[in-house]
Amino acid sequence: MDYKIAGRWAVVCAASQGLGLGCAQALAGEGVNLVINARTAHTLEVAAQALRTLDPRIEVRTVAGDIALPEVRHAVLRACPQVDILVNNAGGPPPGDFREWERSDWVKALEQNMLTPIELIKATVDGMAQRGFGRVVNITSAAVKAPIDILGLSNGARSGLTGFVAGLARQPSLAGHNVTLNNLLPGAFDTARLQKNLAVAAQTSGEPVEALAQTRREGIPAQRFGQAQEFGAACAFLCSAAAGYITGQNLLIDGGAYPGTF
Q1: Please, are residues 154 and 186 in contact by the beta-carbon 8 Å criterion?
Q2: 188-203: pLDDT as tens digits
């Protein structure tokens, strides 16, 4: 299927590894030019080199730095001739007990997982509407659908973004001009973050990492963890011309782990 987005420009945040890289790979495979961002310059350049091999016709530009900083956001936007596609992504806040969090912890979570995506959306969607095409995909979390008690910072910040997007996506000034905004909600994917979390859990519990991983897999109807490439494929579809009638939606990708009907 031709997604009809070849030659367009995308900004993909946190794209040096994991789900962000999976999204960048899928878009590169569709012939989309990329501006990718991550904090670590070396891993970002390695990712960029690999992305260029997927389609020699595309251009891949890199901007290293913390996307939560205004100067980094401005540099990312300056590097992109025009933003047709925006994929917002950022690592989640640490787990813990809300009784231990200070105001600064909440502010940091909101900056990273709510306010930064909103700033990037604000900077790009009107231009998308003027050109008659735009796709915004926010990578949030399955915890937006089914909150996890120890992830209160993430639950709060990402839910705030979800509510904001729900209203914005339905504005005729955007939806009526072929600009869509949707959220992807990942469950357990085989990424470095998942492996780190399993390692921390193993250290705390004294159980082997693989035993914990197997228990986690058995709790998923698909009986496995997701792959970043699968996640990227869903992102590329939402960014395609074919997905122009899908907006304001939250697509849960979790192997069936969420037990509800809605």
Answers
A1: no
A2: 999 988 888 888 788 8
